[in-house]
């Protein structure tokens, strides 16, 4: 799994309900008992969702002995042992953290550049073969990723990219989601702004760089966040294409940690914290964009 | 070009989502200009097309070719053997037959067990969140949060929650009097309970926010009309909410079936495919055969068989639900 690559046919099938949240709230008087039950239910659910994460953080600040003896008390004493052991241990987790950052950033940049240029052509330019190309791109949204697994492994191997950062950045940037997502946005931009620039004598490149891209900033930001999350959390592919410990990213690295520190709860949870804090922070900052982008495809088509 | 400005402004006022394609006629110049425009467009598309051709189109064809050969990474020349790899998959007693279909079965069990929960629970939670309540956004954020975590984190955290001897869940069960350590990640049927439960915890938030967006699109007047007719909360859920959600329901069932059928990390991390190979999913088996055991040709064939299965399931689901969507509209 990873950030959703949304099948286009299904997305297209889900038609557009109205965007008027105000009117759609149910009216009528609320009974206090019902309201109380509602809040109790929601709070219980929220606890179920959040407790494993709280437990992860709390355990990571315990000593090994404390973690085993008192699984659900607060850490006493508060200990950074787990993080110290991790940082100085056999498993180069700081290197993995850096590799994850580098790979996610590189792939995001690659997607932003290639998808925005391609999406501009598909949304705004007329040319021979446009329908065929767009159709090809869209149809691959429906193909399960496992179909590409073995041939792409061989392609990456032939390129000499196995066990390098290129293996976990370049092939993943070829997906159809980015270009599909940006094309939808570009198509919705008013044409007049572009026409005005054209009258001023601007060519396609200038219009793209100085008119369309600045207007697309929100869409680019959303795509950047989704791409970053997607790459950061990718699991299956890096498990198989990264071989040496020093080239790993956090996701395959964590599964090695689990093997190395089998019964050391605190250390493994510290590893999990290191891998989740960056994405949870990103989610905190960009949650509206993330939630809207995943619902947008379903509700608006 | 210039003469079209007023034109396109006028049409844009009527249809603001006017695309470049719609302006095609007005921009058609001589063949030379046309060629130049096509060249420009392809220059814009070139970087993406290079990636797309190398890592999407080429592997799709290459994978098909591999599946028709006796591919071995230890040989330089691979020979074409037609559909033998596919035939083997459908011949009982072949080296791959039993294990492959067991893994398909495991994937099937997981889809059947997880999809209903991943549809019903998010639907109910979305209905709760759609009531007039304070802090609805905060709840939404909390429910969605696990979804942004990677499966490795999910596997690590739940691996310790569910550990038979020292896991916090069995510990908790002890303290309320349930002894007899439950083998959450080592024995059936508990492994399935764990895999499904963990997946619901991890991804239910995604479907919840999608349902919630769908609920906000249902016209409030329909609820008022239902209330005037004397319908209670349950009646109006079945008479207004469910019909209103049909398009969203189609989207969610399709994407959820595909996501569950592609399950890999949960089994890989929590149960390591065990006990025996009971929870080794199709993706896990294909990746193992193709990338660890060097059985690339049979593995490539398996990936296409799985693809065909998923395509059929998606089409059937789409057909069934679209009919209902259309009936719902005409009624």
Structure summary:
The complex is a heterodimer of chains A (301) and B (331). With 301 residues, chain A is mainly α. Chain A has helices spanning 8-13, 21-24, 32-60, 64-69, 81-88, 93-124, 130-139, 146-158, 177-188, 191-199, 204-215, 217-233, 236-241, 250-260, 265-299.
Descriptive overview:
The complex is a heterodimer of chains A (301) and B (331). Chain A is mostly helical. Chain A has a domain at 91-260: MetI-like fold (Orthogonal Bundle), CATH 1.10.3720. Chain A contains 15 helices and no strands. In chain A, helix 6 crosses helix 9 and helix 9 runs antiparallel to helix 12 (217-233). The model of chain A is unreliable at 1-28 (pLDDT under 50). Chain B has 331 residues and is mainly alpha-helical. In chain B, 71% of the residues lie in helices and 0% in strands. Chain B has 15 helices and no strands. Chain B has helices at 4-14, 24-27, 31-67, 84-89, 97-129, 136-144, 151-161, 168-175, 190-216, 220-228, 233-244, 246-261, 265-271, 282-292, 296-330. In chain B, helix 7 (151-161) runs parallel beside helix 13 (265-271) and helix 9 packs antiparallel against helix 13 (265-271). Chain B starts with a helix and ends with a helix. Classes of the chains: A mainly alpha (301), B mainly alpha (331). Chains A and B meet through helix 1, helix 2, helix 3, helix 6 and helix 7 of A and helix 1, helix 3, helix 5, helix 6 and helix 7 of B.
Please describe the structure with a list of short key phrases separated by commas or semicolons.
heterodimer; A: 301 residues; mainly alpha; MetI-like fold; disordered N terminus; B: 331 residues; 2 domains; 15 helices
């Amino acid at each position: 799994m990873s950030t959703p690559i949304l099948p286009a046919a299904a997305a297209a099938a889900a038609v557009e309900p109205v965007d008027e949240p105000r009117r759609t709230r149910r009216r009528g008087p609320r009974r206090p008992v019902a309201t109380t039950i509602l809040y109790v239910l929601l709070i219980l659910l929220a606890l179920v969702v959040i407790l494993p994460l709280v437990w992860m953080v709390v355990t990571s600040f315990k000593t090994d002995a404390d973690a085993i003896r008192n699984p659900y008390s607060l850490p006493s004493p508060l200990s950074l042992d787990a993080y110290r052991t991790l940082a100085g241990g056999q498993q180069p987790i700081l290197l993995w953290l850096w590799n994850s950052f580098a790979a996610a950033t590189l792939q995001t940049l690659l997607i932003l550049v290639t998808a925005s240029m391609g999406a501009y052509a598909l949304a705004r330019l007329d040319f021979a073969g446009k329908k065929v190309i767009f159709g090809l791109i869209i149809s691959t949204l429906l193909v399960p990723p496992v179909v590409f697994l073995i041939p792409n492994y061989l392609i990456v191997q032939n390129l000499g990219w196995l066990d390098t950062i290129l293996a976990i950045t370049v092939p993943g940037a070829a997906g159809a989601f980015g270009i599909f997502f940006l094309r939808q946005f570009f198509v919705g931009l008013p044409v007049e702004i572009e026409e005005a620039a054209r009258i001023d004598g601007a060519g396609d490149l200038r219009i793209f760089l100085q008119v369309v891209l600045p207007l697309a900033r929100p869409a680019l930001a959303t795509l950047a966040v989704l791409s970053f999350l997607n790459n950061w959390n990718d699991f299956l592919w890096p498990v198989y294409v990264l071989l040496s410990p020093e080239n790993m990213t956090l996701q395959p690295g964590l599964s090695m940690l689990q093997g190395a520190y089998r019964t050391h709860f605190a250390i493994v949870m510290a590893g999990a914290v290191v891998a989740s804090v960056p994405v949870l922070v990103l989610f905190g900052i960009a949650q509206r964009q993330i939630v809207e982008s995943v619902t947008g495809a379903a509700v608006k088509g | 070009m210039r003469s079209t400005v007023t034109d396109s402004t006028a049409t844009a006022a009527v249809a603001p989502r006017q695309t470049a394609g719609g302006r095609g006629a007005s921009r058609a110049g001589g063949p030379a200009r046309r060629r130049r425009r096509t060249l420009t467009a392809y220059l814009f598309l070139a970087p993406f097309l290079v990636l797309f051709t190398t890592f999407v189109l080429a592997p799709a064809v290459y994978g098909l070719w591999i599946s028709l050969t006796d591919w071995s990474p230890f040989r330089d020349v691979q020979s074409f053997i037609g559909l033998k790899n596919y035939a083997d998959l459908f011949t009982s007693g072949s080296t791959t037959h039993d294990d492959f279909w067991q893994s398909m079965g495991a994937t099937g069990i997981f889809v059947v067990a997880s999809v209903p929960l991943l549809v019903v629970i998010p639907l109910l939670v979305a209905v709760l969140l759609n009531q007039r309540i304070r802090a609805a956004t905060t709840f939404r954020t909390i429910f969605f949060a696990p979804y942004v975590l990677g499966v490795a984190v999910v596997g690590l955290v739940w691996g310790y929650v569910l550990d038979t001897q020292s896991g916090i869940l069995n510990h908790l069960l002890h303290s309320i009097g349930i002894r007899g350590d439950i083998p959450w990640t080592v024995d059936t049927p508990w492994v399935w309970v764990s895999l499904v439960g963990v997946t619901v915890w991890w991804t239910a938030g995604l479907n919840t926010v999608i349902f919630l967006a769908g609920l906000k699109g249902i016209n409030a007047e329909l609820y008022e009309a239902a209330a005037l007719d004397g319908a209670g909360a349950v009646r109006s859920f079945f008479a207004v909410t469910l019909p209103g959600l049909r398009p969203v329901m189609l989207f969610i069932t399709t994407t959820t079936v595909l996501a569950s059928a592609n399950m890999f990390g949960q089994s890989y991390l929590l149960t390591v495919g065990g006990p025996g190979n009971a929870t080794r999913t199709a993706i896990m088996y294909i990746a193992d055969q193709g990338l660890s055991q060097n059985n690339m040709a049979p593995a490539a064939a398996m990936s296409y068989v799985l693809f065909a299965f998923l395509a059929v399931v998606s089409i059937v689901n789409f057909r069934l639900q679209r009919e209902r969507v259309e009936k719902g509209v005409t009624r």
